[in-house]
Design a protein that fits this description.
Elements: H1 5-12, E1 17-18, E2 20-24, E3 30-34, E4 37-42, E5 45-52, H2 58-64, E6 66-71, H3 77-84, E7 96-97, E8 105-106, E9 111-123, E10 126-138, E11 147-149, E12 152-154
Antiparallel strand pairs: 1-11, 2-3, 2-6, 4-5, 5-10, 6-9, 7-8, 9-10, 11-12
């Protein structure tokens, strides 16, 4: 008997995570809000994110073979919301730049990494994109992260 997907979502929702936006460059940049991200290895420097197989941006990430991951601050909830919705993404009014791969990076994020895809692994209803970090920067050391817990955004309590 398969474990109940709704219960799994509820249980795992009690694991607090940071929030990122993962972007891909090209003629039409795209991106998505993701908290299914992990630092995988220091040597070589690898990170990963999981992307639903049915996601509209699946082809863009596969074709570009690169991605940038911007770690959002608590002041960037609007960006998280924008990139959490399906459909085309608008970048024109956002402060972005690029590094090695050409994928958009949000200038006001806490930190970012720019990656070349080394492997795509199937993981159930998701594909796991593993990327080698080719550039990165810590922009706001000690800044307040955008956190997600139990279906909503959260903040770190003062003095924590």
């Amino acid at each position: 008997m398969a474990f109940d997907a709704g219960l799994q979502r509820k249980i795992m929702g009690h694991f607090a995570t940071g929030v990122t936006v993962v972007t891909s460059g090209g003629d039409e940049p795209t991106g998505l809000t993701a908290n299914s991200v992990t630092s995988l290895s220091l040597d070589p420097p690898l990170v990963l994110f999981a992307l639903a197989k049915k996601a509209g941006s699946q082809d863009a990430f596969r074709q570009s073979r690169c991605f940038a991951m911007s770690i959002l601050s608590s002041a960037q909830q609007d960006i998280s919301n924008r990139f959490a919705t399906p459909g085309p993404k608008e970048f024109a009014d956002l402060k972005t730049r690029t590094a090695e791969t050409g994928a958009p990076i949000f200038e006001e994020s806490l930190a970012w990494v720019d990656c070349r895809v080394t492997e795509i692994v199937e993981g159930g209803d998701h594909d796991i994109f593993i990327g080698e970090i080719v550039a990165g920067e810590l922009l706001q050391e000690g800044g307040n992260p955008l956190l997600y817990y139990s279906g909503g955004y959260r903040e770190i309590a003062n003095g924590a």
